[in-house]
Amino acid sequence: MDPIFSPPLHRQRHQFVIDFVKRNKPQKVLDLGCSECTLLKQLRFHREMQLLVGLDIDGATLKKKMHGLAPMSTDYLQPSDDQLRIELYQGSVTQRDARLRGFDLVTSIELIEHLTLADVDRFSEVVFGYMAPVAVIVSTPNYEFNHLFPERTGYRHHDHKFEWSRAEFKSWALKVCLDYGYEVEFTGVGDPPAGQEERVGFCSQIGVFRRLRGRAVCNMLFCDEDEFSYTLLYSKNYPSLHDNKILQRVLVTEVLSGAETLRRKWAEETTGDRDAADGRAEACGAAMRILAEHPEVEDGELSWTDGRGQQESCELRRCVSVPLAVLWSRCPKVRGLGGSLSNLRQLLMDHPDVTLSQDGSAVLLNDQEQEEEHDELEDSGYAEARVCSLSVEPEENWDANV
Ligand code: SAH
Question: Which residue has the higher pLDDT, 149 or 381?
């Protein structure tokens, strides 16, 4: 039946929910009768989403499809600022479970027609009376549309227990509103042929329910009971910067690339300094500004070190010292992720990929390329002036000053 619609009807139903989510930005969404999790997969891309839950009585289908909800590699490469958790439960919408209360939106797409009418009453009580979400979207076939499919007899699916006319759907929906304190708006997807809108209506009829203010209180009646009748089959926290390990990994990448950029600029500009005629004089000025912008950072702090002044070791490891204070002020991403300068230092301190100076105020970068350049400078007699040992004195309360 779907191919007569473009896009197919099942996509139009899901798109209806997605559009609602875009407009209303619910943070906790529950999809009842989620089946192959197609709708959940699309909803996970919405940044505002914090909790996405699916429920279906068919545990085998959930188990087969649930891995499609796992984070993708891009989710790990670019972890979100927000937290998203996805859960899947096996259970029946006719039973209560305290974990599924307090949602912003509950969707029931082409589900109720699979229930007996007695179970539809239980569904109404569980969803509107017990779960009591802020909004509910219910879609179900519109029986009046069926005569437009002459080759088809009976209901649209062998498992359907009923298919309602618009009047029957309306009568059920209005009773729900009265019993549980909601208001409803009727709409649908799957347009009828031109001129038959009034007579036939949409192929899938949809009710959008919104809880009336103050009515949530009546649901406090259920508060004492902690019922857990569903089986949790899947739960996954998406990569998020709220996870300290992930934050640290992203921060280290940003710090190392930021420090490397600064080192390059500095190297270029110090070279340009001694040879303004080669066209790099401008770059040199920029480099000096990097340092001058931060009064507490002396020019010498972004500097060569050959370790000779620091250690007696015979291993002469040369590196560039990039003060965290300079990184902090030059790299907005580092600032955004670090939260505070002392937090930044804390997060970098124990990371194996980062070497901090003794007082923890600077990142030390090994630099082979610079070392080679430096060898050339030494040969030409420049080295004396350029190379200095890592002379960053531990500043008193250095990060409080920034
Ligand atoms: N919402 C999905 C699938 C609809 S098919 C979509 O939009 O594509 C109906 C689904 O409801 C099936 O997956 C079926 O297993 C599920 N279902 C039927 N009775 C149920 C019940 N009592 N409780 C929960 N899910 C039920």
Answer: 149
- Amino acid (1-letter code) at residue 164: W
Closest Cα to residue 62, out of 230, 229, 234, 228? 234
First to last CA, the chain: 66
Phi, psi dihedral angles at 13 (to 5 degrees): -65, -45
Amino acid (1-letter code) at residue 13: R
Task: Please state whether 318 falls in left (phi above 0), alpha (psi between -120 and 50) or beta.
Answer: beta
Tokens encoding 361: 């105020």
Please work out whether the CB of residue 111 comes within 6 Å of at least one atom of ligand 1: yes
User: Based on C-alpha coordinates, what's the Rg of the chain?
Assistant: 32
The residues near 387 (Cβ < 8 Å, ≥ 6 apart) are 304, 306, 374, 377, 378
Q: What's the average model confidence in pLDDT over 40-52?
A: 94
Q: What is the mean pLDDT of residues 374-383?
A: 49
Please name every residue paired with 206 in a beta bridge, in sequence order, or none if there are none. 139, 187
For ligand 1, whether the C-beta of 107 sits within 6 Å is no
Q: Is the CB of 110 under 6 A from ligand 1?
A: yes
Measure the CA–CA gap between 215 and 51, rounded to whole angstroms: 23
Euclidean distance between CA atoms 27 and 4, whole angstroms: 34
Locate 245 and state its tokens: 């390990």
Q: What does the chain come to in residues?
A: 402
Q: Is the pLDDT of residue 15 over 50?
A: yes
- Exposure of 6 by Cβ count < 10 A (0-12 exposed, 13-18 middle, 19+ buried)? exposed
